[in-house]
Design the sequence.
């Protein structure tokens, strides 16, 4: 540390400079292992998160294709499934009930946590935070590396649970007790459930290590001139995402600890007065409350949907502004609405529990707070639309996906108003309406945000472009397909068709949906195939894509485009650039764009 | 000397310390989750409360308070470059921490012997889990202390950077205060 003061004799020494000129002194040679595997470079860790997330997305998506086969064609058999999956899970080419529930459970767990939490915010927080705030790396690159490896461990444990004899966890992605607490209650509540809990605990550790780092980095390591109100909205969104994660995941963790004790130590936090049909025995547990778990779970569970959604919002804001060549509309309102969403996220968890016997009076408060979220959401939508309004729009693939994100967010958000009402929820709870709502607003919308981010920042990640033709095919089929899959589910849900059921053909009233279900299943297979096209494009372009020739291919203002085309560890070769303005000076004073590093000139108009 | 200049020049908190504070926030949320579960359960029928808190928890409280004092003294002697005293003090802190965990263990055994086992979902079961998790956090602190004392006894490298010691002491005081909170919580709401 002793030479730093001499290096930085001038008065404005910021912490990151102190930190990193340290690294600068000794350029050690990277081996394959330190560069690609146990890397502490935030950009490489981001890519590791992304590629692991892609692998998980393929697995999780495949699960949905399998159970859609069952839902669309309940009376047909597919002998190939027996060949692929064995006679235990797909006897006679029909998906067996235990397997079906395992598929549904793992689809939810994988997509919510492993893809849209780790794969989305893990990727882009790692990639973008140091690059956009002007830091050489995270506050603690080592913790950052640990964060990825805990995620990797969690992935290994979760994958291994697919191969145990009794199958993976199958009590739904929420793992409600008593089903999840009693090994005798179902096949999926045995070893698979334990592995699920261990994997999720590791996942929580990973996400906390990451979140701590993101917060510390954003607040402490910004370059000179990068005040909080000059941060790009991506960074604000990732900041609130990290805050949500750091405050809510520990609560989920405490719920899991109690569940583990109920499973193995004989406590009865969640168990009371149970007669188990499978063993024909009454259980000794008394005094527990299954609802307690739901409170602890949804205290995370609701912020979790914003953990998934906020990064997508931030990236969409940035990409929309860049590709409309217009400043973002209402920058401060965007931050304020992110903050409002972040606060409200903690105050609405019981709207998942309206039908648990929750006091209706208490429920009315949760209705109010839930509907309040419509306000910041509407502000954001309004600002996005006014940002692109009369803009000079460039329809890059990233831009298309950002526009698709807005479309999904609006359509899915509107049905949230139905579900947020405790009275309507009595009818709609646990129907396909809920599936349609959250897949559109949270699942597909966030996926669109993620795709927008991948297409937009791929040149920064790999120094090459993705193939545009494949990208446009990917976009249009995914957009149309997503609506074709999820829109009809609203009608099924309004008619009362329950979610999670293996086969609804026993109810005459749902027979009218036979054709619709087949249709949804076929479309989902097509959409899944198109995602594989994206995966092909992704890996092909890493090695063979068109090379990026200019450091700033999109004409963007933010700092990541001031780095070399293929930045090394440390990001900037010389000094870290200084920031003089906000990130959104597009189309100002007759200039197309003014990067953040350019000083404000005396003749410039005010914004 | 020059380190001092850098320390004065930077106005922002050191990232490692800041990370610790955010981490403390998340640990607090975990215990807040558990203690609110306790409060919710307590208002429900068939709640079983504890007869009394074992006396040994009072002594263990004294031990962890003492260890906080020695930690603070260790930090001071580190800053004053009194290396032998610093070594002694962090060893004592670690030993007091270990003693604390042992006493907690005996406290659990006393509760267990009085008939409160894992069966049920009352104050006793919550206490095992909440105080047990707290002891795990103390254990993590002891492991960190062991690593620090290896560094302190190393003759190869001399380190005058106070940040790790400051981070350590903040964490140690945190687990101390956390235990005080938990003890008061259990006393008031058995």
Sequence:
């Amino acid at each position: 540390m002793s030479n730093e003061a001499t290096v930085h004799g001038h008065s404005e020494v910021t912490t990151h400079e102190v930190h990193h000129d340290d690294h600068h002194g000794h350029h050690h040679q990277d081996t394959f292992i330190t560069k690609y595997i146990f890397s502490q470079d935030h950009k490489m860790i981001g890519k590791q998160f992304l590629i692991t997330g892609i692998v998980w997305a393929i697995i999780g998506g495949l699960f949905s294709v399998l159970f859609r086969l069952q839902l669309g064609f309940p009376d047909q058999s597919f002998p190939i499934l027996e060949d692929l999956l064995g006679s235990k899970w797909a006897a006679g080419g029909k998906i067996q009930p235990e397997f079906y529930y395992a598929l549904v459970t793992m689809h939810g767990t994988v997509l919510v946590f492993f893809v849209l939490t780790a794969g989305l915010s893990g990727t882009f927080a790692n990639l973008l935070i140091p690059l956009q705030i002007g830091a050489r790396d995270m506050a603690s690159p080592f913790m950052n590396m640990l964060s990825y490896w805990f995620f990797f461990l969690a992935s290994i444990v979760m994958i291994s649970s697919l191969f145990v004899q009794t199958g993976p966890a199958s009590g739904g992605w929420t793992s409600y007790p008593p089903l999840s607490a009693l090994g005798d209650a179902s096949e999926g509540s045995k070893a698979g459930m334990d592995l699920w809990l261990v994997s999720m605990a590791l996942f929580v550790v990973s996400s906390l290590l990451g979140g701590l780092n993101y917060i510390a980095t954003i607040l402490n390591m910004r370059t000179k001139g990068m005040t909080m109100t000059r941060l790009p909205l991506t960074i604000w969104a990732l900041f609130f995402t990290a805050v949500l994660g750091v405050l809510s995941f520990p609560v989920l963790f405490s719920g899991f600890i109690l569940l583990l004790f109920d499973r193995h130590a004989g406590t009865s936090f969640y168990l009371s007065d149970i007669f188990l049909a499978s063993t024909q025995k009454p259980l000794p547990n008394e005094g527990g409350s299954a609802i307690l778990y739901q409170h602890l779970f949804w205290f995370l569970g609701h912020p979790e949907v914003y953990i998934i959604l906020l990064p997508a919002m931030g990236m969409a804001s940035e990409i929309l502004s860049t590709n409309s060549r217009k400043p973002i509309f209402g920058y401060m309102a965007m931050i304020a609405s992110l903050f409002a969403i972040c606060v409200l996220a903690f105050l609405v968890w019981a709207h998942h529990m309206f039908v648990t016997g929750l006091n209706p009076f208490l429920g009315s408060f949760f209705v109010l707070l839930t509907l309040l979220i419509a306000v910041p959401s509407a502000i954001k939508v309004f600002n996005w639309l006014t940002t692109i309004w009369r803009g000079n729009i460039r329809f890059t693939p990233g831009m298309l996906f950002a526009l698709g994100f807005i479309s999904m967010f609006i359509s899915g958000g509107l049905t949230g108003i139905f579900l947020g009402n405790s009275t309507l929820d009595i009818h709609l709870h646990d129907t396909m309406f809920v599936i349609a709502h959250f897949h559109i607003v949270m699942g597909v919308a966030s996926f669109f945000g993620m795709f927008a981010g991948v297409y937009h920042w791929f040149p920064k990640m790999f120094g090459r472009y993705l193939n545009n033709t494949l990208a446009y095919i990917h976009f249009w089929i995914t957009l149309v397909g997503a609506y074709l899959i999820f829109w009809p589910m609203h009608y099924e849900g309004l008619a009362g068709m329950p979610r999670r059921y293996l086969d609804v053909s026993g109810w005459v009233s749902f027979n009218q949906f036979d054709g619709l279900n087949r249709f949804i299943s076929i479309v989902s297979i097509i959409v899944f195939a198109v995602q594989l096209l994206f995966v092909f494009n992704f890996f092909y372009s890493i090695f063979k894509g068109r090379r990026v020739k200019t450091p700033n291919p999109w004409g963007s203002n933010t700092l990541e485009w001031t780095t070399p085309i293929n930045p090394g560890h440390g990001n900037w070769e010389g000094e870290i650039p200084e920031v003089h303005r906000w990130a959104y000076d597009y189309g100002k004073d007759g200039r197309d764009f003014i990067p953040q590093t350019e000083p404000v000139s005396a003749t410039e108009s005010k914004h | 000397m020059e380190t001092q200049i850098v320390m004065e020049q930077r106005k922002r908190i050191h990232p490692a310390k800041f990370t610790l504070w955010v981490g403390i926030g998340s640990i607090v949320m975990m215990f807040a989750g558990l203690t609110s579960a306790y409060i919710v359960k307590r208002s429900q029928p068939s709640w079983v409360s504890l007869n009394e808190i074992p006396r040994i928890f009072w002594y263990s409280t004294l031990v962890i308070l003492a260890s906080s004092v020695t930690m603070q003294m260790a930090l001071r002697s580190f800053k004053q470059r009194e290396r032998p005293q610093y070594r002694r003090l962090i060893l004592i802190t670690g030993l007091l921490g270990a003693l604390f965990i042992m006493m907690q263990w005996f406290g659990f055994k006393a509760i267990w012997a009085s008939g409160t086992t894992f069966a049920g979902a009352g104050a006793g079961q919550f206490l095992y889990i909440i105080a047990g998790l707290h002891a795990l956090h103390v254990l993590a602190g002891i492991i960190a202390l062991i690593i620090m004392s290896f560094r302190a006894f190393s003759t190869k490298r001399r380190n005058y950077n106070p940040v790790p010691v400051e981070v350590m002491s903040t964490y140690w005081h945190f687990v101390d205060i956390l235990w005080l909170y938990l003890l008061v919580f259990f006393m008031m709401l058995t």
Observations:
- The first strand of chain A starts at residue 275 and ends at 276.
- Residues 1-26 of chain A have pLDDT under 50 and may be disordered.
- Chain A touches chain B through 55 residues (CB under 8 Å).
- The two ends of chain A are 42 Å apart (CA to CA).
